[in-house]
Design goal:
The complex is a heterodimer of chains A (89) and B (417). Chain A has 89 residues and is mostly beta strands. In chain A, 15% of the residues lie in helices and 37% in strands. Chain A has a single domain, classed as Folate-binding superfamily (Folate-binding fold). The chains are: A mainly beta (89), B alpha/beta (417). The structure holds flavin-adenine dinucleotide and zinc ion. Residues 5, 7-8, 56, 59-60, 62 of chain A line the site of zinc ion. Chain B: GO terms for molecular function: nucleotide binding; sarcosine oxidase activity.
């Protein structure tokens, strides 16, 4: 598996660290318990396309959203979590 | 047929042509008291204990491939009960006790070999941790011995004792731990369950869980038609999320893959299971001479039953630090299994929010050793509709209730366990 960092180009997997499911979002502070339990613990764990966070730790350090097939490991999309000014122009 | 010295001699004289098949291959019936999804170690052993301990014999084990094709046939066969928490030790120690009598109980040689598990440590912090764990074991009546540096080197003469960074300081040994033959465990339980009337149905994939008027589980939809059931018990290891999703239940589980490695056969050189405290590495030697070893999970969601090179490199590096004399030994085979990692690293053996639906899963990379004990408890849970004391801590609701069983303190990150 290799990941194409939008800033650095294609790099081997061991430059990156996995940072978990990118589809979970932090609930509101006042949200009921069940939403917090779901956020902290429960996961869809799809067999197929998965949106996930990876960090280019041994490279530019950016946080990325990677769309990857968990069966074939094919990566269909990589984007920055917060695109920089440069990347947008 | 009972296997014995007499039956062996008799068959030998007839050229081994008269052995009967170890179990039947029946077509699924319309209805069973209990349908177990998953013909791995846990599914088959649960069927065995349901029949043996609870007299529930109208049972089917439904397996999508062939029995033993999942993790039970892919693991590195380590059996131990050197756990830390008071909530974990009773279950795993009960399992180890069952292992000690398993070959006799099943009338099938599972080749359980109590060669010991030796966790070697290399820093003061690791020694403190080992003392703490050893004490927790002893307090719970489990065997544990602290070895000093000299004793470790006597047991494991090949360890690089003085590599500067990671000198050997000592080790924590559980003498009663060891290895077993994983395929034999599958076949032994399958044969034992079959002899008591359990139907083992292979090449039959469960695609849905049917529900009654009040939402209760009433059977399974399969690639070979619908099978009705009084109760449905799930034991599908890596696919726990997918099968439970059929009943609309979302779990604190992610599937990751774990790799295993076997070298070419060499002369006997390691007679225990040794772990390297610095990296995540463990190694033992099979009866055929191959070195069996492994490391960490790959650490990101995956259903691919094959490995990835960064872990191969990682494991090879750790091996060179730990046992550098093995540097020229060639790798023979390497594969991966899909493991269902939970958010606290501990299993789920429980009733579910759905009436008549039971779950044993979330085995992470530690479920082989647990097969006898956990299946014994799971059968108890299914038969009595209530957990045994040993598996009560492993309920799904522990996450919502804020009492996870988190031995490593890794927090709600499956790849930290
Ligand atoms: C490389 C590796 C090394 C390991 N090392 C150890 C070790 O040293 N010690 C230890 O204690 N544990 C170890 N483990 C963990 C251990 O192997 C597992 O926790 C344990 O085997 C899981 O339980 P099981 O045997 O029932 O699972 P499996 O054997 O995976 O059984 C589940 C079965 O369910 C079937 N199934 C799935 N979905 C369906 C469906 N829809 N319909 C019908 N059937 C279905 C699968 O085909 C499979 O046969 C290791 C795991 C791996 C991968
Ligand atoms: Zn980068």
């Amino acid at each position: 598996m290799r990941i194409s960092c939008p800033l650095c180009g294609e790099r081997p997997l061991d430059e990156f660290i996995y940072r978990g499911d990118a589809t979970v979002t932090r609930p509101d502070k006042e949200a009921p318990m069940e939403q917090w339990v779901e956020y902290v613990y429960l996961r869809d764990n799809p067999k197929g396309i998965h949106r996930e966070h990876w960090r280019h730790a041994q490279g530019c350090g950016s946080w990325l959203i990677v769309e990857r097939n968990t069966v074939t490991h094919e990566i269909t999309q990589v984007s920055e979590t917060r695109p920089t000014q440069d990347a947008q122009t | 047929m009972k296997y014995s010295i007499t039956s062996l001699v008799k068959q030998a004289l007839q050229g081994h042509k008269g052995w009967p098949e170890a179990f039947r291959h029946p077509a699924p019936k319309k209805h069973y008291d209990v349908v177990i999804i998953g013909g791995g170690g846990h599914g088959l052993a649960t069927a065995y204990y349901l029949a043996k301990n609870h007299g529930i014999t109208n049972v089917a084990v439904v397996e999508k491939g062939w029995i033993g094709s999942g993790n039970v046939g892919r693991n590195t066969t380590i059996v131990r009960s050197n756990y830390l928490l008071n909530s974990e030790i009773p279950l795993l120690e009960w399992s180890l006790k069952l292992w000690e009598g398993l070959s006799e109980d099943l009338n099938y040689n599972v080749m359980f070999s109590q060669r010991g598990v030796l966790d070697i440590f290399h820093t003061d912090g690791q020694r403190d941790e080992a003392v703490r764990r050893g004490n927790a074991m002893i307090v719970n009546g489990v065997d544990a011995e602290m070895l000093d540096r000299q004793q470790v080197l006597e047991m494991m003469p090949m360890v690089d004792e003085n590599n500067g960074r990671f000198p050997v300081l000592g080790g924590l040994l559980q003498p009663r731990a060891g290895n077993a033959r994983h395929d034999a465990v599958v076949w032994g339980y399958a044969r034992g369950a079959d002899q008591m009337g359990v139907d083992i149905i292979q090449n039959c994939e469960v695609t849905g869980i049917s529900r009654g008027p009040n939402g209760e589980a009433t059977g399974v939809e399969t690639s070979r038609g619908r099978i009705g059931a009084g109760k449905v018990a799930v034991a599908v290891a890596g696919h726990t999320s997918q099968v439970m999703d059929m009943a609309g239940i979302k779990l604190p589980v992610e599937s990751h893959k774990l790799q295993a490695f076997v070298s070419e056969a060499v002369k006997p050189c390691i007679n225990t299971v040794a772990t390297f405290g610095v990296g995540h590495l463990y190694v033992s030697q099979s009866d055929k001479g191959g070195l069996v070893f492994g490391g960490m999970v790959d650490g990101y969601n995956s259903f691919a039953q094959r490995g990835n090179l960064p872990i191969v490199e990682d494991v090879a590096e750790a091996m060179m630090m730990f046992l550098p004399t093995l540097g020229r030994v060639r790798l023979l085979r390497h594969w991966a299994g899909v493991v269902d990692m939970t958010m606290d690293g501990s299993p789920l053996i429980c009733k579910t929010p759905i009436e008549g639906l039971y779950l044993s899963g979330g085995w992470n990379y530690t479920g082989f050793k647990a097969i006898p004990g956990a299946a014994w408890c799971f059968a108890h849970t299914v038969a009595n509709d209530a957990p045994h004391d040993f598996n009560a801590p492993f309920h799904l609701d522990r996450f919502a209730q804020g009492r996870p069983v988190d031995a490593t303190g890794g927090g709600p990150f499956p790849n930290h366990h």
